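Mods, move this if it's the wrong board.
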Amino acid sequence: MQFDKSAFQFLSDLKENNNREWFFERKEVFKEHQNHAKEFYGTIRENLEKHDEIDQFKLFRIYRDVRFSKDKTPYKPHFAGSFSRTGKSLRGGYYLRIRPGESFLAGGFWEPNKEDLQRIRKEIELDATEFRDLLNDKKYQKYFGGKFDGDELKSAPRGFDKNHPDIDLLRKKGFIAVRNFTDAEVFTPNFLEEIDNSYKALRPFFNLFSDVLTTNLNGENII
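Not the wrong board. Structure tokens:
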């Protein structure tokens, strides 16, 4: 199964005509593309469930919340969906956005709550060896460039030594793995396979962070 090129064209046109009048006249066409997108993301979930436990899938609405945004365009010119892992012990989630010129997949911890972020930082402060090993993993480097994406502080977080040897990791406000795709890559016959291979490469990442977030600094289970 491949992503529908006509749906891709619809998203390109929507970006150029991001207004309610244009969209209303083509709402039935949008629904057809949306149904195809659901099938496409459904196939991704089926592939994921062959090697991970998935609790739920969410295809995000195309409508934007413009109440607190300077950008008042009413629609998102893309399809995006997330896949949540099952249970308290399996942390992390998968994400995919398909947008002309700006498609990418991701996984990890975008805005962890303060308790989770503090727990991760304390683990890094104590011993970052496993985090460095993850970043140096050949598959993680192949698919995600051997780095964590996400926002970071300009200096050390409060209570942490600014001269710590792993300050680059301690400054992170989130821990995300991102892989970008060109439009040509989106339409290759093996796009679904590339998505799934990328998600498989995330498992050591999820395993490490799940272990950290379900134990205390002594390694004792807390769930």
